[in-house]
Amino acid sequence: MDRKNYKIKDIAAMAGVSVGTVDRVLHNRGDVSEKSRKKVEQVLEKILYRPNLLVSSIGVKRKITLAIVLPSHQQGEYWEQIEKGIHQALYDFSKIRTETKTFYYDQFDLYSCRTAYSQALEYACDAMIIGPTFREETVFFSRKLDEQGTPYVFIDTLIPSCNQRAFFGPDSRMLGYIEAKLLSDVIGEEKDIAILHAVRSGNESSLQTVVRKAGFFEYFDTVSSKNRFLYANYYSQDVEQSWKEFDRLFSGENDIGGAVLFNSRSYIFASYLEHHGITGVKVIGCGVTQKNIEYLKKGYLSFLLSERPDVQGYQSIKYVLEYILYGQHEQIIKHTPIEILIRENIDSLF
Amino acid sequence: MDRKNYKIKDIAAMAGVSVGTVDRVLHNRGDVSEKSRKKVEQVLEKILYRPNLLVSSIGVKRKITLAIVLPSHQQGEYWEQIEKGIHQALYDFSKIRTETKTFYYDQFDLYSCRTAYSQALEYACDAMIIGPTFREETVFFSRKLDEQGTPYVFIDTLIPSCNQRAFFGPDSRMLGYIEAKLLSDVIGEEKDIAILHAVRSGNESSLQTVVRKAGFFEYFDTVSSKNRFLYANYYSQDVEQSWKEFDRLFSGENDIGGAVLFNSRSYIFASYLEHHGITGVKVIGCGVTQKNIEYLKKGYLSFLLSERPDVQGYQSIKYVLEYILYGQHEQIIKHTPIEILIRENIDSLF
Description:
- 2 copies of one chain form a homodimer.
- The relative contact order of chain A is 0.13.
- Chain A has a 6-stranded parallel β-sheet with strand order 2-1-3-4-5-11, with helices on both faces. Chain A has a 6-stranded mixed β-sheet with strand order 7-6-8-9-10-12, sandwiched between helices.
- Chain A has 3 domains: about 10-45, no CATH class; about 65-170 and about 310-335, 3-Layer(aba) Sandwich (Rossmann fold), CATH 3.40.50.2300; about 170-305, Response regulator (Rossmann fold, 3-Layer(aba) Sandwich).
- Chain A has helices at about 10-15, 20-25, 35-45, 80-90, 110-120, 135-150, 170-185, 205-220, 240-250, 265-275, 290-300, 310-325, 345-350, and strands at about 65-70, 100-105, 125-130, 150-155, 165-170, 190-200, 230-235, 255-260, 280-285, 305, 330-335, 340.
- The radius of gyration of chain A is 24 Å and the shape is elongated.
- The two termini of chain A are about 30 Å apart.
- The first copy, chain A, is built from 13 helices and 12 strands.
- The first copy, chain A, is α/β, with parallel strands linked by helices.
- The interface of A and B includes residues 100, 102 and 345 of A.
- Chains A, B: It comes from Alistipes timonensis JC136.
- Chains A, B: Keywords: DNA-binding, Transcription, Transcription regulation.
- Chains A, B: This is LacI family transcriptional regulator.
- Chains A, B: GO terms for molecular function: DNA-binding transcription factor activity; transcription cis-regulatory region binding.
């Protein structure tokens, strides 16, 4: 188990080529003859070489510049954890000199996003990491990045028909499917299920919500339950209006046994349950935010799914550094973990 | 976000002391006056210094020697993942020259464990990592390590009344509690629950199983369900005998709706269900082994709890390296994550 750390000159000697040649192969730059490349690659394979950003016996002299475009956020919210993962990776790989600049936008305001995108476009960088919300706007922006030749990576939400180098985020369809499975398992086949929909003003539903909802109903299509589905809207900024909608759910003949939400605002429904002293409704949502954790611990949420935003942030930085330093040419789509959280295991996970 | 990497000479200059003094404070060795130590510590606090094994701008010249004592294992078994975490940490921290020697024992054979312990005791090392099974034997061994002055760390199972520097493993009581909670939620209040007990020959139950079972019943003490509990033994090496026991469970008036196992051999019960075409029994177990994953995917296990053996292995190496290089004097007990796995999220987690 005692490993040998091969240095670039060891590899050069073993391959019978110059140090410069090994360097060019490893860092994927400059001209190398097919014959020399093969020799080096054979040695790398033999010694099970994999580039290690953490050790990097191959010195990195240059400075890498990254632009990051993200929704702005409050403390304890979902995107804060994405940034935490980003910071952790920059810390772990701080042997590599990296400069980052972050451009924030209001995820409920298309014009704010447009401004952030224009500013990011002006910033000369080696690569860009984007947490997108608005589909059309992002497609348009990505075309400009393609023209510039700036490589970019998406996190959290995959926007189709872009040329991103990589994507790190949960499988949204599967996330909705798991929400359905767990809810169905714990409420049985008779009760009504409330589907709660976040209303955004001025634009369509987020792409992610649409896909999660599809995954949710895909599960119920496979089981022959008698559950009825009831729908209600809610509004991030308008509690009064949301609660009116919830009042309607609990009126009349309805027998609500469970409820599902597809974004990180489950606490809005949970606070309604708490205020009205309603127990016995199993609620499942996603997003391990401070407020959601609070209601999970109080028992007003039964399950939370975590999309591991920290992992998304960490992996995106690791990927772009490897991409820039070592070159990785396949486009990758990496689905990050979907964790199931209940009151009893959440403390062990954070 | 662009961080400065402080070198030891920067810290010395800021504190107005010699490089040697900073080195002694950081590595917790040699004599340093109280006054100088304070000066250095103030600077470290100001620059938010934390020792970073990954970067280590403070060079590590010495070689660190570690002994590791673990149960032997087959491919795809629980302890293989502990070793995977150990290897990953050694790789990530390969800037630090580390030599490890692993001593294996048969976890079902006390004498084999005794032999491994004696051999490890002869091996001169800076620290030891122990995955214990036998309580008395381990207490006895730990006394000898105390006499030698060898620091040691437990993983997986905490043995009470030892002077370990640290423990990395799941909270066993909570693990049993979560098994009960999930099982209870999905089978309802009427069905019978099978409690499956692993028989070990020649020695008492493992300490871990006892604690997990206690956690399991602690949950049922808090709910007023009508579930009946039925007990059966099983034998790792004797399928025929195990299946006889299971036949008894499914005979007569019994109405088995769920089953629980407390170690990583859930597949033994699952294979019985598969062979007899029994569906509709919700089984919960722990240990993300190849065989368990196979039966989770086939639907014969409903839930698996993962004790994250990879995290246990990784953290134990990271801890001992930090302990040896930087000195950390509080004894720590770090409960590793308890993850809830179902067929639908397992692929995203591995």
